[in-house]
Amino acid sequence: GIGVGxxxxxxxxxxPIDALTTYLDKLDEYGVPRGRRVxxxxxxxxxxxxxxxxxxxxxxxxxxxxxxxxxxxxxxEALLAPEHxxxxxxxxxxxxxxxxxxxxxxxxxxNYLNSWKRLGFSDQDVAKPGSDRLVDAVVAYGSVxxxxxxxxxxxxxxxxxxxxxxxTGSDKLVPALAELAGPLGLQ
Length: 187
Fold this sequence. Notes:
Layout: H1 16-29, E1 38-39, H2 44-53, E2 56-57, H3 64-74, E3 79-80, E4 84-87, H4 92-103, H5 110-118, H6 123-126, H7 132-138, E5 139-141, H8 144-156, E6 164-166, H9 173-181
Parallel strand pairs: 1-2, 2-3, 4-5, 4-6
Helix pairs in contact: 1-2, 3-8, 4-7
């Protein structure tokens, strides 16, 4: 996947769309096939660019509503693989605590704040530590069936694939994924 980083991390700021276009031009120059690249894309301009210049888009920290909008923008042929975070617990308070820790750094980054605001989240929702509404939208939790249903909302909205980020210790990763596989029809 290809992304351009964040303006907060660079001393010299270049518009993301310009930096990404230049990078894709270089990949073209070096003969990297369009079908061997995927672009990290949130906003409409970069989503369109991902469809035109790569295999597709890999949105991060989004919702099924974003997935539906992204599919409309990139068309039916481009790959659409939105990531979704998961906490395997039915304890909402615990899931939100874990989710907020994962979201903390992103609540300082303009591109994520803008993306969430385009999805209808308010300034209060995206202010640290992140509202319950925001956390519940980008972090799936509950029973494995409830989590599978939430992930399936992305597929129903037009995603080709939903990469799952399990927010647990690495020793619990494989068991968590195995537990989710059944309800997702992956066994």
